[in-house]
Amino acid sequence: MKLVVLILFQLLLGFNSSFCQQPEIIRGGVIEYERKFNIYSLYSKNDPNAAEQKRMYSQFKTNYYNLYFSESETLYKEGRAATENTVFPSQPGEENIVFTDLKNKKRISEKKVFETVFTIGDSLRKIEWKIKEERRYIAGFECKRADAVIMDSIYIVAYFCEQIVTSGGPESIGGLPGMILGLAIPIEHVTWFATKVSSNNEVEINKIRTKEKIISYLEFKDFILSHSKVWGERKTIYTISCLL
Amino acid sequence: MKQTIVFLLLLGFVKFGFTQHYIIRGTVRDSSIKKGIENASVTVFRAKDSLLLSFTRTTPEGRFKIDSIFESQIFVMVYFPGYAEFVDTMDISKIDSTVSIFLSSKAKILQEIIVHQKIEWQRIKGDTIEYKADSFYVPVNASVEDLLKKLPGLKVNRLGTITSQGEAVNRVLVDGEEFFGNDPTLTTRNVRADMIDKVQVYDAKSNQRTTTAIDNGVRVKTINLKLKADKKDISFGKAKASVGTDAHYDNSLMANKFKDKKKLAIYGIHSNIGNTKLNSGDQNNYGDNLQLDLSGLTDDIFNKWNGQYSGNGHPTALSGGVHFNNKFDTDKQSINVNYKGSTLEVEGNKTTNALTLLPENQNRSLEVEKFRNDIQGHNINGKYELMIDSTSNLNVSFEGAISHKTTLSEYLSKTYRNDSILLNEGQRDRTTESGNESLFGNINWQKKLNKKGRWVSLDFKMGTRQINGDGYLSTLNKFYSDSSRQETFTEQTDQYKTLHYNQFYMDGKAEYTEPLGNDSYLLFNFKYTDTKSSSERNSYDKSSTGKYDQFNDSLSNNYSFFMSSKWGGIGYMLIKNKFYIISNFSLMDTHFRQQVVSKYENALERHFNFVIPSTEFSYSFSKQARMYYSYNGSVIPPTVQQIQPIVTNNDPLNVFVGNPLLKPAFKHLITGKYSNYKTIEHRNFLARASFGFVNNAITSKDEIDSLGRRIVQSINTNGNYNLSLYSEYEFIWEKPDFSIKPNIEVKKSKYSNIVNQAKNSTVRTSIEGGLDFYIAKDKLFEIDFNTSFLYVQSTSSLGKNNSFDFTTWHLQPDLSLFLPCKFRFDSDLDYYHRQQSVFGQVYNDIFIVNATLSKILTKNNALSIKLTVKDIFNNNRGIERSESTNAITQNTYDVIRRFGLISLQWDFSKSNKKVK
Question: Which of B56, B75, B78, B79 to substitute to test the interface with A, most A CBs within 10 Å?
C-alpha cells in the first residue's frame, strides 16, 4: 500500500512539474510547436476528388517546428519529422525559416514556394493587437488571448505568455508583451500550438546564412501575387501561407 | 547661429503635429516586501477597444518607462508569475505621469491532475473583483444564490443576505439593471446560475444613475451579474407543487422572459407553511413609503398588527406579482414596473410572562392572547428614467397601494405582586376592520453644469394616505387592593369605535455642488417638508336599546396635525486618491401644531431648531487596508404620542400621559472602522467601533400604582449612551474549499429613567460572538456551520434583586450532500440553548432538524421530486426573551410544528436565440 502511495506521489510531482510550471521568468530556450493544417479544407464540397482524398488521408497534416529564442533574437525552423500524413505533398510556405532580430527590428525569412527558395529581408511586421479576456493553458503556461487583423483582412488569434520575456512567435507573428505559444488563422485552417518549452539561457541562435540574393518583402509579394493566378482554387490559401 | 538652429529644431518639433504624446513611468514592487520586481511585463492598452499600444519590461530595480503613447484613455496591465495580475484604467492628464504599482503574490495553487485545468477565475480591476462563473461548480438547476455561496470572499446566510468584506450587499443588478424592485433575493433565488458569465462585486457611487454625477463619497456595495451572450434571449423559471401531512401545502410559480433589454417576470405563491412572500426582503409593503405619521396611531386598536407573518402563529398565504423592465431609445429611457397582490391570514396563541422591578418589590404578570388576523392588498409601483442628454437626467417614480385588514383578539391577564398578591386580572376582546389607501410620487432631476464638478439636483416628493376603520372593544378589569383580597373596583367597557385618518405630505429638496480646485467641492442643500394629517376617532357605548349609539365624548376626539420643517446645509468635500473627507453643517427649523379640528384655541404648538453637524473621513493605506471615521449628529423629535397623546382605553393597565414640555433629543454618534481585505491571500480582517450618547434622551417616568396599573409619561434624561465594539477575521482556502470566520461583539449601554419616583439607571453589558465556517467539495458535499453565543448582564440601580444575567447559544449547521443517481440530500439544524430564566425551566434546549431528499427524474434535469420533513423531532417552540430597563419578558407562541411534504418541481430554461 505504501508503495502505491509513493508511486502516486511521484506521479503527482511529475504531473505537477509539467502541468504547473514553477513561476519564473524565461529569457531563452527552445519551443516546439505543433502545426496542424486541416487538409480537408482544401477540398470544396463539389470536388470529385474530395471523397477519395479523404479516404487516403486523415484530417490533419501535422508538422513540427522549433523556435529558438533569446531575449532579443528568435529563429523559427522546421523541427522533427511529422508523424501523420507524411505523404501529403508539402504546401507552399510549409518549410519556412524565419530569423527575427528584435533589437534592430529586422527579419530575414527563407521561404520555399514549390521548387524555388526565396530569401526575404524585411522590417518587423507591425500588428495592431487587441487583448481579450480569454485565458488558456498551453504547454503548462498560462496564456492570454489577443486578436488582430493582418494583411488587411486576415483575422488571427494568438495566445501569448508573459512569463517568457521574448516578444516573438511562430513565423513572422509577434509584437506582444510575451511569447506566442498558440496561434490560429481561421481562414487558413491552420493552428500552431506549443507542445514543449525548455528554458536555456545559453541557447545558440544561428543566423540565416545566405548565398542567395536577399529580396525585399514587397518584391516577394509582387512575385507571389503574379504567380498565384495559376494556382487555381487554392491560391488564396497558398498566397497567405507564403506571405506570412 | 546656435539660437537659429535651436529655433528651427523647435519648429520642426512643433510641425510634427500636435498629437499629444504621453509618457508613463514608474515602479512595480512586491506589495508585502516592497521590493522592486525585475522583468515584470507592463503593457498599455487603449481603453475603448483594448488595442495594444506599447509594452516594456521592468529594470532590476523594478522601474519602467513607456513613451510614445498617443491615447489618453488607457488601461495598464502588469504581470509577473506568482503574483495576481494588476489591471487599472488611467485617464492621463499629464504629459509625463508616474505611477507606483504594487503586486500581491498569489498563494500557490496546486493544479488539478485531470487534464481540464482550472482557468484563471478572478481578476481585480481597480476596485472591482470579477469572478468567472463557469470556474465554480454548482449543482444542477442551481440559482445565482448557490453560485454566490461558492465565490471566495462572499457569504450568503439562510435568509439570502449576501455579505462581502463585512458589508451587506443590498443591490444585485442583472446586466447593470435593477430586477424586480431591487430586492436582492428576488434576483439571486430566481435567476439561474448557468445564465451568468461573470459576477462583478464593487462599491458603486450611491444612487446616482449617470456617470455625470460626482462622487459624493457614499458607496453602495453592489453585485452585477453579467449574462452570457447566448442567454440574453431566454425564458426560464420554476414551478413547484407540494402536498403534506396535516393539510399542509406549498405551491409556487416563478416565470421569466428576458429578451435583450426587456425583462418580464411573473410569480405566484399559495402556501400554508410560512412561505408568505417571495423572499425574506419582500415586505407586504402597502404604502410605507410615506413619512412617519404624527397622529399617535401607534397606540390604537386598529394598529395592533403590522400585516406580516413573522413566525408567530399559523399563516395561509396567496400572493402573486408581475415585473417588467425595459430600456429603449438607445438606452436613453428606461422603465421598471411592478405589481403585487396578496392575501394573508394568520392565527395563533401567545403567552407572555413579565417581571417588573420596582423600588420596593417586583410585579409578575401573565398574559394569554388568542388571535386571528388577515389582510388583502394590492401594490403597484413604477419608475421611469430619462437621460435628457449627456449632462442631465430625470427620474420619475410612483407607488399606489390599497389594503384591507381585519383583526380579532381574545386576551386574558393577571398581575401579582411578589408572586403572591393578586393585583389585577382582566379580559379583553377586540375585533377591527380597516382599509388603507395610499399614493406616492417622486420626481428627481440632476444636471451637470458647464464646469467639471458643478452639479445641481432637484427632488420633489408627494404622498397621501387614508385609513378608515371600525371595530368593537369589550373589556372587563378587576383591581384588588393590597391588604384584602376584596375587589376594590371594576372597570368594564363595551364599545364600538370608528377611525378616519388622512395624511398629506410633500417634500422638496435642492442641492448644488461647486468645485473648488481639483479635488474639493462645496455643497449646498435646502429641504422643505410639510405634513398635514387629521384623525377622527369616535367611541360609542352600548345604550339601553342594545345598540352602540351612545356617543362617548371623553374617548372620542378629532385632531389635526401640521408639521413643517426647513433644512439648510452647507458642506465641504475633499476627495483624493488615498483619502476623502466630507463635512456638513445643517440648520433645522421645525414647527408643529396639534389642534382639535375647527377649534383653533388650545392648540398645542411646538417650535424647535438645531444645528446638525456631521463629518466623515476615510483613508486607504493600500488597496486592501482602509480606515474610516465618522461623526454624526441627529435630532430625535418627540412624537405627538409623547407630548399630548390621544386618550384611548384599549389597555387600562397601561395609561399614557403627555408631557407638553418635552424637548427633542440630540444624538451624537461616533463610529470608526478598520478593514484589511487580502483578496488574493484570503485573509479578511474587520474591526468596527461605535459610541453614541444622547442629550435630553426621551425616556420615561413610570408610576405603577398599588393596583398594578402603569402610568407612563415621557421625560428627558441625560447620561444615556451606548458603546459597541465588533471584530471579525476570516480565513479562506481554495483547496480544499474551506473558510472560517470567528467574530465577537462587546456592547455596553446605559439608560436612565424614573420608576415610582426613584431614579433608575440600567447598565447593560453583552458579549456576543460566534464562529462561522464553510467547507465544500465539488460534486460531493457542502457544509455551512454558523454558531453564536450571547451573554447579557444587566444591572439596574433600583431596589434589591436588581441584576440578572443569562446566556444563550445557537448552533446552525446546514448540510448538502450530492449523491449518485441524481439524488440530493439537504438538511439544516437549529440548536438553541437558553439558560434557565426567572420564569422557570421552559423550553431551554430546542433542537430543530429539517431534511429534504430530492431526486431529478428526467434526463434534461427539468423535473425533480422532493420529500421533506420539517422539525423531525417535533421540537419547535416559539419563544422570545427580552429585557428592558426594569423588566424582563418572555413570550411563548404557536409555531408550525412537525410536518412532512412531498413536492414536484419543474425547472425550465429555454434559450430562444438561434444558434448560427
Answer: B79
In angstroms, the CA B597 to CA B561 distance is 9
Note the pLDDT of residue B916: 42
Residues B264-277: what's their mean pLDDT? 84
Q: Please report, for residues A22, B353, B881, the alpha-carbon distance to residue B888 in angstroms, rounded to integers and kept in the order given.
A: 64, 8, 7
How far apart (Å, rounded) are the C-alpha atoms in residues B36 and A193?
33
Query: Is B789 near chain A, with CB under 8 Å?
Result: no
Residues A167 and A27: their CA atoms lie apart, in Å, by: 10
CB contact under 8 A, A23 and B81: yes
Cell of B181: 424592485
- Sort residue B871 into left (φ over 0), alpha (ψ -120 to 50) or beta: left
Q: For the segment B797-851, what is each residue's pLDDT rounded down to a tens digit?
A: 876 667 878 888 899 999 999 998 889 999 999 998 887 666 765 667 888 999 9
- Of B527, B523, B612, B631, nearest to B572 by C-alpha is B523
> In this predicted structure, what is the pLDDT of residue B680?
61
Q: Where are the domains of chain A?
A: 26-243
CB contact under 8 A, A19 and B113: yes
Q: Do the Cβ atoms of B319 and B340 come closer than 8 Å?
A: yes
- Neighbouring C-beta atoms of residue B2, cutoff 10 Å: 6
ipTM: 0.79
Among candidates A179, A146, A148, which has minimal Cα distance to A161?
Answer: A179
| Rounded Cα–Cα distance for residues B154 and B151 (Å) | 6
pLDDT at B462 over 70: yes
Cα→Cα distances B521→B38, B454, B568, Å: 41, 9, 17
Residue closest to B893 by CA, chosen among B373, B426, B415, B369: B369
Instruction: For residue range B727-781, list pLDDT tens digits in order.
Output: 999 888 876 778 899 999 999 999 998 988 888 888 999 999 999 888 988 888 9
Side by side, the strands of the sheet bearing B162-164 are: B154-156, B162-164, B167-169
What is the torsion angle, in degrees rounded to the nearest 10, for the CA atoms of residue A226, residue A229, residue A230 and residue A232? 150
Residues 6+ apart with CB under 8 A from A1: none
Give the pLDDT of residue B290.
43
Mean pLDDT of B714-737: 88
Residue B677 has phi, psi (to 5 degrees) of: -110, 100
Which 8-state DSSP code applies to residue B312? S
Residue B59, chain A, CB below 8 Å: the answer is no
- Does residue B661 belong to the interface with chain A, where contact is any CB pair within 8 Å? no
Please say if the pLDDT value at position B405 is more than 90: yes
Q: Is the pLDDT of residue B411 over 90?
A: yes
Rounded to 5 degrees, what are φ and ψ at B532? -130, 135
Asked if A167's CB is within 8 angstroms of B55's CB, the reply is yes
Q: Are strands A116-123 and B250-259 parallel, antiparallel or unpaired?
A: unpaired
- Grid coordinates belonging to A43: 477540398
DSSP-based three-state secondary structure for A6: helix
Interface of A with B (CB under 8 A): 12, 15-16, 19-20, 23-25, 27, 128-132, 135-137, 142, 146, 162-163, 165, 167, 175-178
Contacts of B133 (CB under 8 A, 6+ apart): B147, B193, B196, B197, B198, B199
Pairs of residues, one from chain A and one from chain B, whose beta carbons lie less than 8 Å apart:
59
**Selection from B300, B302, B288, B282 nearest residue B438 by Cα:** B288
Quote the pTM value. 0.65
Chain A residues near residue B80 by CB distance under 8 angstroms: 25, 162
Q: What is the C-alpha separation between B358 and B754, in angstroms, rounded?
A: 10
Whether the pLDDT of residue B298 is over 60: the answer is no
Inter-residue contact B871 to B849 (CB < 8 Å): yes
Angle between helices A217-227 and A235-243 in degrees, nearest 10: 170
3-state SS assignment for residue B417 = strand
